[in-house]
Amino acid sequence: MRITTPPPIGAVQTSQQPQRADRARSAFELPGTTKPETQTTGTARPAVAAAGLETLLAVQGMQPDDRRERRRRAMSRGRQSLDLLDDLKLAMLSGEPMPSVLLKLRGLTAQHLEGTGDDGLDGLLAEIDLRAQVELAKREAAAKAG
Questions:
Q1: What is the pLDDT of residue 41?
Q2: Interatomic CA distance for residues 51 and 55, integer angstroms
Q3: CB atoms within 10 A of CB 72
Q4: Which helix (H) or strand (E) holds 4?
Q5: Are 56 and 20 within 8 A, CB to CB?
Q6: Helices (DSSP H) in 41-66: which residue ranges?
Q7: For residues 97 and 91, is the Cβ–Cβ distance under 8 A?
Q8: Residue 23: exposed, middle, or buried by beta-carbon count in 10 A (0-12, 13-18, 19+)?
């Protein structure tokens, strides 16, 4: 797919200026004279608009792979993991088993960690994931022993 870009901002003229000039000319006419044909730039405008539209659609098509989107998904996963670890801690303190929390945590840790491009955030998410895996291993070892 070829992406064409519109001309620089300084080279683009708005369609409002020629329309105003045309209206001013057509507002006053002498009787018996014919209206002169004026050349308009209306034929070039749709090409510029189409090029801008194609560029906009191409940019929108690339957004899911954007760094911000990957960062947002990674942060959401980190929050979910921390929330599940908190639920697991509360279940342990109350003495009641919560197999649904363990299943959710296992499902989250089974997913591949997606890199965000930010080394600090990636490291923090890896530590959260490791902690979740340790908690799962401890619960599985306790279930086998008990």
A1: 52
A2: 6
A3: 12
A4: none
A5: no
A6: 45-62
A7: yes
A8: exposed
